[in-house]
Amino acid sequence: MIILLIYGEGPHTIAQIFIPLAGLFYLKFLEVKRYSWMILASLSIMLMAISNPIGLWAGGMLLGSIFIIFFLYKANKKEIIFRTFLIFILSYLFAAFWYTPGFIQSDLIAEGGGLAKMLFWHFPWGISLAGLIIGVFLYLIRRFVSSPYIATLVFWFLLTFFVIVAFYKYGIEFAPQARRYVPELDMASVALLAVIASRISKTIHKKTKFADYIIPLFVILTLFFTFKTWSAAKYFTSYDDGANRGNVEKRMNQYLSGKILPLERIFLSANYSFWINMQTDTWHLRGGHWQASIHPWEPHAGYQIISDKDGEASFYWLKIFSLKWILVNNFGSSVYYRDYNYPDKFEGILTEKEETIDSAEVLYKVPLVHEMAGPVDLNKIASLKVPQNGVDKEALKLYVSWIDENSSQFNFKRLNNDRYIIEGITGKNEGIRIAMSFDKGFRAYDENAKRLEIVKDPLGFIVIRPPKPGVNKVTLVYKQTLDFYLGWFLFAGGILLAIFLKVIIKENDGKN
User: Fold this and answer.
1) Where are the transmembrane segments (predicted)?
2) What distance in Å separates the CA atoms of residue 4 and residue 271, rounded to the nearest whole number?
3) Domains of the chain
4) How far apart, in whole angstroms, are the C-alpha atoms of residue 140 and residue 156?
């Protein structure tokens, strides 16, 4: 867990606090119809969801396990469905100020194109196969396990184990970013082992008076054998030793901060992206850490740059996202999660480079014609192709040629995160392409405060139609959309619904 915090999994770790709480309160509400359990379960799920989407999916596996097992074991199935529905509705309404419809539609977990597209991608093969395997699990659990509580823990463990093994062994993702659920597997394992140890202790207790000492002895031995792990954790968290990894990232951020100018972008690997995001104001592609990115091609570009061996396609993506710098971790880098599978692919493609504070870390400079803004031919937008995938080099090359065709330079100035000034010369039938994700909240105005048309280009970036050829000064402003206010409206509706349910719910102390 400490290492997770060191390498940028803080929000995920926070979400893990609420996963067992959500499971406990949900289970209690299924057993006893009490208003307090319902509210506590809904709030725990809400906090889990807004902490981290990965935590939400991981928590969903626990909650799903509880629902499936209780539905299978308990007689009053309609009541289980009804209570689960109440929890689901309240949880979403409580989280609606964050999980707005637009937020969910954009890219809930990234590495795809939104929640709906991800579910469609998994159907029918992924869902059908998972359903078949789950069915076999349930049959075996129901046959050999009599307690619904033990059955829930067994099913939760098997489900999490299956998701992780399917990814690492066969490359199949039954849940988004399946490689990140290892801590939840540990959590399920510990819970299952605790129940097993408790059962063993009770069995032994009937036969010997020393049973009360078995569990404490087990805990002491476990702590003894994990002492080295704690020593390693201290090594990771200490900044006193100049050789430790945390200090490498800190010193690299200091180096990059002095090298990269304001409004210039850089691409970094996983743990560097977290630390530079936390410690500096440097712009980089993974500022959102691949979670809830609104740009449809950002995760594909990141995958190509890091994981694929095609250097040419990676080069095109660097130019498309106006990434002036890229820090590549070669083999031998002191950074633990260096990410790059083919670091040599940039040799010969990116010629300007320099060694950094680590000889195995190379900083490349990408030759950009334009950085944040530049003129583009509006008549050619229709001829541009939407890439079939992240390695569609024909479409990518055509797009890069389009944005690089006119070398006229624009001045791009940031007033704040919601207001930008763009100034430059455009020719006839030319627009201004901004290397920022298109969003309906953006508004563009000319010098006379007249609103200008904004369109989305084939790769999801902003293109502004200026009022006239020649010198143009445009103000780009972001304003909250109806979607934002809808989220808060739904949140208020959730509060009112909770009050209403307090009045109408008839609490039942009897177990379901």
Assistant:
1) 6-27, 56-73, 80-99, 119-141, 148-168, 210-230, 485-505
2) 10
3) 2-233 (no CATH), 246-365 (no CATH), 373-479 (2.60.40)
4) 14
Q: Which residue has the tokens 């992206």?
A: 273
Show the CA angle centred on residue 275, arms to residues 272 and 278, nearest 5°: 145
**Cα 313–chain centre separation:** 24
What is the spatial distance between Cα 264 and Cα 403, in angstroms, rounded to a whole number? 17
At residue 272, the pLDDT reads 77
CB neighbourhood size of 206 (10 A) = 7
Query: Which residue matches tokens 């449809």?
Result: 296
**Splitting the chain (512 residues) into consecutive groups of 10 residues, what average pLDDT does each group show?**
57 89 96 93 95 88 92 90 96 93 64 50 53 74 83 89 86 79 89 82 70 70 61 46 56 85 86 74 67 72 89 96 92 75 92 84 94 95 91 95 94 94 94 93 94 94 94 94 92 95 75 59
User: Of the candidates 51, 65, 66, which has an alpha carbon nearest to the alpha carbon of residue 18?
Assistant: 51
DSSP sequence for 361-373: EEEEE---S-SSE
> Where is 204: in which H helix or E strand?
helix 182-205
In sign, the C-alpha dihedral spanning 17, 23, 25, 26 is: positive
CA dihedral 398, 402, 404, 405 (to 10 degrees): 120
Nearest residue to 22 (alpha-carbon basis) of 88, 77, 81: 88
Q: Residue 265: beta bridge partners?
A: 283
**H-helix or E-strand spanning residue 221:** helix 214-225
The DSSP bridge partners found for residue 352 are 365
Assigned token pair, 324: 């002036």
pLDDT of 273: 74
Both tokens assigned to 364? 């490349």
Closest CA to 462 of 443, 425, 444, 435: 435
- The 10 Å CB-count burial string (b at 16+, else e) for 273-303 is bbbbbeeeebbbbbeebbbbbbbbbbbbbbb
